[in-house]
Amino acid sequence: MPSSPSRRRLLQVAGGGLVAAPLAYGGWQWLAPRGGSGVQGPSTGTTTGKPASAGSGQAYLHVIAHADDGIYFMNPDLEQSIRSGALSVTVCMTSGESDGRNAAPKTPQFKTLPTDRPGFARARINGLRAAHALMATGDDNSPWSVEPVELLPGFRSELHYLQAAPHCQLIYMGLCEARYVSVPRPVSMRGLWLGAIEQLPTLPGTGSTVRMPRAYTRDQLTDALVAAIARVNPTVIRTLDPTPLHAPRETVAMMSAPTILRGLSYLDHQDHTASARFMQAAMERFWGTGKGRPASVTNYFGYPTNYTPPSLDAATTRRTAQLLNAYGWVDHRDCGDPSGCGDLKVGPNGLKAGGAGWARGTRTRTPGTSRWVAPLKDGRLAAFAVLSGAVRCWVERTAGKGPWAGPFDVVGSAGGPLDPQVEVARHPDGTLQLFATRTVLPFKGEKHHKELVCAVQSGVGADGVPTFGAWSSLGTPDAGDKSLETGYPATAVAPDGTVHVLARNWAGDIALRSGAGGKDWGPWQLLDHPPGKQPPHPLVVEGIDALVDPAGLLHVVAPIAKTLLHWVSAAPGEVPKLSAPTGLTPSGSAVSLVADGRGGVSAVYRLAGTAQVAMASPKGSGAAWSVVRRAPIGGYGRVSAARLGGSGGGLVLAARDDQGRVVPSSRESSAPDAWEVPGVQFVGIPGAAQDASGRGVLTVIGTDGQLYASRQTGPGARFGEWAVAVAAKDSVGSRV
Fold first, then answer.
1. What is the largest CA-CA distance in the chain?
2. What is the DSSP string of 612-649?
3. Residues forming beta bridges with residue 13, ordered by sequence position
4. Bigger pLDDT: 437 or 38?
5. Coil, helix or strand for 460?
6. Is 278 left (phi over 0), alpha (psi -120 to 50) or beta?
């Protein structure tokens, strides 16, 4: 388990000492710290202490657009990070000044309030400090220290850190917000990203230690985020969604906007999207320097969670409500600031109106699957993960035994950073093939688009590590801007070696592309969709899965707003057709397909609104599926599921619990003790495979960027202790 930094270390980090110079393409340099007390009250210096880059264990960087984004969209992960005791930094990019009225619309107070944008910006800062203090210490009035910090020379932001918990830090950049959800306003991060303006000004809040407004160019804003990454040296990076769902129709404002501002209309706030895209550019620049520790990335849905079934249980939702009450100044506490102590636009309405879905749902843009660990031809397991935008590989030294070795770089660059997850398909001859997606940013003459990519294993090196050929593109079901909404792929391999790749397209349908031997790919084909009137929003949002059963039939499952859809091919090699309605209640997560051990399939998912893990199987042709519910463990997200082969044929499950830990199961029973002892906190989805001895093996990427593994003590038996998979002597470090 990663250890927490010492208090002394965190006090040094609290004023961390990086200033980045705006050099070409991500250039930055370390400068000596200058002044500041670091622990007591405001200071006049720009930096104090040492940067976090020399720290051990894990560190978290959250990048948001507005003060309440992390509370709504990144919890419970955000609170778990803060409570871990590790460095947790939230960078808020805009002032969030909105209309400058700190009152809920349609209230008498709203009508009489004068416009005071700096004052409202300060009130939102105070609200976010209260919520973070509540998460870190249990006291929303726990005092903060504030000092200016320069991410770029001459560009001051505010650094806030809790005196009682200095590992909990906020950086306010103070950029002017768009002030509209989707109206294409030039003076906005979106306008800066598209080149509609050359500079975006800041708007310091009332009483800010940053007294003079500044204006950032697109490159300067990107470099400032590069500097934030370098300052924190994170092992976990969390952003909002860079590729949200499109709106059902174009708005009049978008159609009448200047050409440079036109584009598709989306269901998310334009500041959310722009903040995530600037962060994508910053990560690409930073990783291009070869600096920093291997970092995982998670992109969280924003407003579109309103259009998906709730993913969190009642207890987690109540906790979010408590945090929103602190942020929204529900108790009207006196924080000593005449600008206000919270955001009264949220106030007691955090679980009402537009915010209801946001607080009840946590969803990630790239949900991943459990198929990132698989046996090589000689029986040794190999695990693959995307860290710092590149694929890393770990391998067992001996088949069926620990320890592992790694991480290794086994495949070259895909032409830019990969999106956060990777999938591995195993061909009948034991050859592995990797699948991922990459987002190409609109720089260097490129058009903004996404593409699916794959790489086939070419052999095994002298050190026993698999090697892969170059990445090749599978394209996407849609071209241009529409390709950005391509979903995370699901793969399935047929007994004859045909590899099937499926992904949701722009319209929310499922597209299929197949290739013999993982090459010679045919065209993209759309699966049929339910008859009748289609919903105004995309049918399938994210989280599909696929599996080929023992008869060679391809099964596909997808969650939609009101149920789960199931497709199956009538004969091997045929395109799957939509089955009779499953009768299943909605899923609050991505769905996993697993063999049922009797020649059919089962779907493993979380029941919407409860987070309870359920397992559903078809009763027969045209009949509703039967459901078995597991004992509740909280948490959210896709549940990993694998059916072991051989005489045991047991089922292995792994899920996230309400503390962010991995919880295994090697029993099909729904009894409470079917869930076993929790392991480490992790990111992404647990991997699942069978080793050479017939035992189930589960793997996760810890929040410190290391591979952790647990193995059954015997075929079908309970899982053993979770531990770092790679012994220190077998670690090769990062080669990216």
1. 76
2. -EEEEE--STTPPPEEEEPPP----SPPEEEE--TTT-
3. none
4. 437
5. strand
6. alpha
Any residues with CB less than 8 A from the CB of 473 and at least 6 apart, and which? 451, 452, 453
Q: What is the pLDDT of residue 30?
A: 18
CA-nearest of 145, 144, 172, 168 to 158 is 172
State the DSSP string of 44-65. SSS--S--GGG--S-EEEEEES
Q: Contact 732/408 with Cβ under 8 angstroms?
A: yes
Sheet of 592-595: strands edge to edge? 592-595, 601-606, 613-617, 626-629
CA distances from 94 to 34, 339, 705 (A): 26, 18, 29
Question: Among candidates 339, 317, 316, 319, which has minimal Cα distance to 329?
Answer: 339
The number of residues in the chain equals 736
Residues contacting 141, CB < 8 A, separation 6+: 130, 133, 333, 335
Q: Which helix (H) or strand (E) holds 193?
A: helix 189-194
Instruction: Report the C-alpha gap between 528 and 577 in whole angstroms.
Output: 6
Sequence-distant (6+) residues with CB within 8 A of 706 are 2, 724, 725, 726
Residue 521 neighbours by CB distance under 10 Å: 16
Distance of CA 394 to the CA centre of its chain: 22
3-state SS assignment for residue 36: coil
Check: CB of residue 619 under 8 Å from CB of residue 603: no
- Reported as a single tens digit per residue, the pLDDT across 346-403 is 988 888 766 788 999 999 999 999 999 999 999 999 999 999 999 999 999 999 988 9
Bridge partner residues of 602 (DSSP): 594
What b/e sequence results for 89-99 when a residue is b if at least 16 CB atoms lie within 10 Å of its CB, and e otherwise?
A: bbbbbbbbbbe
Strand runs (DSSP E) across 523-666, as ranges? 525-526, 545-548, 554-559, 564-568, 577-578, 592-595, 601-606, 613-617, 626-629, 640-643, 651-656, 662-665
Question: What distance in Å separates the CA atoms of residue 391 and residue 408, rounded to the nearest whole number?
Answer: 9
Q: Which residues, 6+ apart, have CB-to-CB distance to 490 below 8 Å?
A: 369, 423, 501, 502, 503, 544, 545, 546, 556
| pLDDT (0 to 100) of residue 414 | 87
Residue with tokens 């990216």: 736
Give the position of tokens 């979010």.
320
* pLDDT(29) > 70: no
Contact 426, 380 (CB under 8 A): no
Q: Are 718 and 710 spatial neighbours (Cβ–Cβ below 8 Å)?
A: no
Take residue 5 and report the two structure tokens written for it: 């930094």
In the numeric block, the tokens 């042709």 are attached to 621
Q: How far apart are CA 554 and CA 578, in angstroms?
A: 12
Question: Do 406 and 395 touch, CB atoms closer than 8 A?
Answer: yes
User: Does residue 273 contact residue 190 with C-beta atoms inside 8 Å?
Assistant: yes
Sequence-separated (6 or more) residues with CB below 8 Å from residue 438: 414, 415, 416, 417, 418, 419, 450, 451, 453
Q: How far apart are CA 471 and CA 455, in angstroms?
A: 5
Burial readout 293-322 (b: 16 or more C-beta within 10 A, e: otherwise): bbbbbbbbbbbbbbbbbbbbbeebbebbbe
Give pLDDT tens digits for 263-273.
Answer: 999 999 999 99
**5 phi/psi in degrees, rounded to 5:** -65, 150
SS3 12: helix
Task: Report residue 578 as tokens.
Answer: 């939509």
pLDDT (tens digit, 9 = 90+) per residue, 208-232? 989 888 999 999 999 999 999 999 9
Residues sharing a CB contact under 8 Å with residue 145, sequence separation 6 or more, in sequence order: 14, 38, 39, 40, 41, 42, 160, 161, 162, 163, 166
C-alpha span between 94 and 92 (Å, rounded): 6
Residue 653 in tokens: 């499950």
CA angle 275, 82, 665 (to 5 degrees): 100
- Rounded CA-CA distance 266/246 in Å is 4
Q: Determine the distance from the C-alpha atom of residue 197 to the mean position of all C-alpha atoms in its chain, rounded to a whole number.
A: 30
Is residue 39 over pLDDT 80?
no
- How many CB atoms within 10 Å of residue 717? 15
